[in-house]
Amino acid sequence: MTTSTTWFITMTHLKDRQTFADQVYAILAAIPAGKVVTYGQIAKMAGLPSYIRQVCFVLRHLPSDHQFPCHRVINAQGHLSVQGETYQRYKQRLIDEGIEFNHHDKIDLKKYGWHI
């Protein structure tokens, strides 16, 4: 069974599949400038802490014209999880917001993490 198939089967067991995505959207919209949050933190805030991959799925399938600050979502190790031009664009947006990267391109979650 593939990851996407597993995700679909898992998500069909939710009372309302769209509710999870809507919760992710609301959390994304609330992340303040100058702060970052991990995929796992978003899953936890949405009430489903084991749904980290599903958060990634929701982010990958946002409409192309979305206005969510996806550049503020990083992995648990403090790195951006995107590559190429998107990586450079997200990194520059974070730098513009005052977030610093160390020499390994890592963000200090203790300093810049969004803790609510």
Structure description:
The protein is 49% helix and 3% strand. The protein has six helices and two strands. The chain has helices at 3-12, 17-30, 39-45, 52-60, 84-96, 109-112, and strands at residues 37-38, 73-74. Strands 1-2 form a two-stranded parallel ribbon. The longest helix has 14 residues, at 17-30. The N and C termini lie far apart (36 Å).
Descriptors:
single chain; mainly alpha; 2 strands; disordered N terminus; 116 residues; 3% strand; 6 helices
What percent of the residues sit in helical stretches (DSSP H or I)? 40-55%
Q: Determine the structural class based on helices, strands and strand pairing.
A: mainly alpha
Spatially, the strands of the biggest sheet line up as: 1-2
Portion of residues in beta strands equals under 5%
Could you describe the largest sheet, including whether it forms a barrel?
A: 2 strands, parallel
What is the oligomeric state here?
single chain
Mean pLDDT: 88
- Taken in chain order, the helices and strands follow as HHEHHEHH
Amino- and carboxy-terminal Cα gap: 36 Å
Compose a concise summary of this entry:
The protein is mainly alpha-helical and 116 residues long.
Task: Give the SSE map.
Layout: H1 3-12, H2 17-30, E1 37-38, H3 39-45, H4 52-60, E2 73-74, H5 84-96, H6 109-112
Parallel strand pairs: 1-2
